[in-house]
Amino acid sequence: MDILGISCYYHDAAAVLLRDGKIVAAAEEERFSRVKHDYGFPRNAINFCLETGGIQGADLDHVVFFEKPFRKLDRILMSVLQTYPSSWKVFRESMITWMIDKLWVGSTIESQLGVSKNKVLFCEHHLSHAASAYLCSPFDEAAILTVDGVGEWVTGTFGVGRGNQIRLHKQMEFPHSLGLLYSAFTAFLGFEVNEGEYKVMGMAPYGQPRYVDKVWKLVEQNADGSFSLDMDYFCFHHSTDKTFNRRFVDLFGEPRPPKMQFYTEATGFPRYFGEAPANYSEECRLNQHYADIAASIQRVTEELLLGMARRLQEETGLKRLCIAGGVGLNSVANGRILRETPFDELYVQPAAGDGGGALGAALWAYHMLLGKPRNGCMEHAYWGQSYSSGEISSFLRENNIPHQQLDDDALLDGVVERLMRGKVIGWFQGRFEWGPRALGNRSIIADPRNPEMKDIVNAKIKFREPYRPFAPSVLAECTERYFDLPGAVRHYPARYMLYVVPVKTAEQSHLPAITHVDGTGRLQTVFRQHSPRYYQLIERFGQAAGVPVVLNTSFNLKGEPIVNTPANAFNTFSKSEMDCLVLENFLVEKN
Ligand SMILES: [Fe+2]
To answer: What angle (nearest 5°) sits at the alpha carbon of residue 217, between those of residues 213 and 218?
Structure first.
């Protein structure tokens, strides 16, 4: 039985193909269209899924959309009526997109895929989120917490999964939204909403949470674990382009200008920014203020999530927790939930945000609607497109790109030797990853022992702000030597870089390039059976360097989606100052 799940028209469009309940292919549209966070109808991702499954649209048994369009329209109409006339603009703009796309998604699916109307199903947004975590998890019983910006009406749920069924027993509703609260601060701090949330999380450790009392003026946690926003500070419910209002600014001061460079006395002025400006100290002082605000919203978000998780644990008595929704990507909060609540195991799926809704919707149909039993869990994130040696070889030859083709041993030794010499390497292997993190198949890798490496990678490739941490990939069995994560191998979120944990104090000086300013790391545990070549590379690097850890950052330029094809990879390599490019067994070098 073939079921296609689709999510689109909101954040990250994606498609997933399940065959008899098992994932055949899963990918976000942005990897194909090269439009970051592409939310349009995922034609390319769907075609990729169908091709991988060797079928046509008409062969599908069901196509499942990740939310219910009419319920969402209902929410927009109701919130517009409540805040009319200030909401007129949001209403007009929403109606245009609704009329063009969303209400007709059923017909679009029918015509694009050639499937009949009775095969098209709709799952509720938060049920898609819940299913995307629980039904992929190794647990046969678990509590479920979903938290995001907003689905149809719902912004968060408490639930329980047992066997192949999920029951969501509590829900929080728009406009009370933790995701939208965090996004308001993302915008205030000068970043793009739905993109810059990671930057807020990365900036937070440079600040002190001095303003938590002020943030608590905006939000209150209720005794049942839910929360309420004071809407007097926000305008996302009646504006299309603003999330916070004048009262918010009166409380926190003027917003940070989007183009302002970030540095503090602690970071110093990064060399790759060029010459320090005359008003360096003044800018440091101002940035410190914004870092303190980032620390404050991050702290309150963590406290709210801890409060929700503790309450959910009390209600259910369960020891395992599945988290989904965009807030599930807050790996700092995930780490704290594991350490500070009675839950002793978490599952978060790599595409915890809206892209993952495509997966959840398909799993919902298969297990909950059709009653099929569970049959295994998601063990890794490698569900995207791969390219054969033949395809890569043709690409290199057709474009006259000088290269070497090496056997596995020579390739791995060659890469290790270059890493040891401080080279930065584009590493392209197998199927690209599902979700926003690069996990060793479309990664840029470097030596984590070199204290200069953060600046080198930033200067050569990423041009990122200095507060963005780089992640460590570590051999799963060696994790506990370097990171404070007891029982590391059983923690699935660590496979997907969804935990930030302390780097062991004694090891921090050995791993300066992946240790964040607060002594933590967003680690990825690497398993031999799931990524054999990446595992071997780290193993050999460990033999040469003494630490089985490499610095891993996503294979893209700033602002671009992670690479998909060999051509994407080569272009990124050419446009940056990366030293070498590895495409499967082919090695390309810059002189
Ligand atoms: Fe969502």
So the answer is: 125
- Beta pairing partners, 15: 6, 27
Q: Measure 179 CA to ligand 1 centroid, in angstroms.
A: 9
What are the tokens at 275? 């010459």
Residue 508 in 3-state DSSP? helix
CA 258 to chain centre: 22
Backbone angles phi and psi of 348, in degrees to 5: -130, 130
What distance in angstroms lies between residue 324's CA and the mean position of ligand 1's atoms? Answer: 8
Taking the centre of ligand 1 as the mean of its atom positions, its distance from the CA of residue 462, in whole angstroms, is 28
CB environment 527-551: b (16+ within 10 A), e (fewer): beebbebbbbbbbbbbeebebbbbb
Q: CA-based Rg of the chain, rounded to a whole angstrom?
A: 23
pLDDT value, residue 543: 98
Residue 467: name the closest of 210, 294, 238, 246 by CA: 294
Give residue 106's pLDDT.
83
CA distance 569 to 563: 6
- In sequence order, the β-bridge partners of residue 147 are 156
Euclidean distance between CA atoms 465 and 517, whole angstroms: 14
Residue 145 sits at the vertex; the CA angle it makes with 139 and 147, to the nearest 5 degrees, is 140
| Sequence-distant (≥ 6) Cβ neighbours of residue 181 within 8 angstroms | 218, 219, 229, 297, 301
Which residue from 403, 449, 400 is spatially nearest to 426, judged by alpha carbons? Answer: 403
Residue 85 · residue 33 · CB < 8 Å: no
Compute the residue count for the chain: 591
Give the span between the Cα atoms of 270 and 465, in whole angstroms: 9
Structure tokens at 49: 């899924």
* 327 CA to centre of ligand 1 in angstroms: 9
User: How many of the other CB atoms lie within 10 Å of CB of 222?
Assistant: 12
pLDDT, average across residues 249-272: 88
Is the pTM of the predicted complex or chain greater than 0.85? yes
State the pLDDT confidence band at 97, using cuts at 50, 70 and 90: low
- The pLDDT of 334-362, averaged and rounded, is 97
Return d(Cα 375, Cα 367) in angstroms, integer: 10
Task: Name the pLDDT band for 481 (thresholds 50, 70, 90).
Answer: very high
User: pLDDT digits over 45-65, tens only?
Assistant: 999 999 999 999 999 999 999
Task: For residue 109, report the distance from its CA to the centre of ligand 1, in Å.
Answer: 20
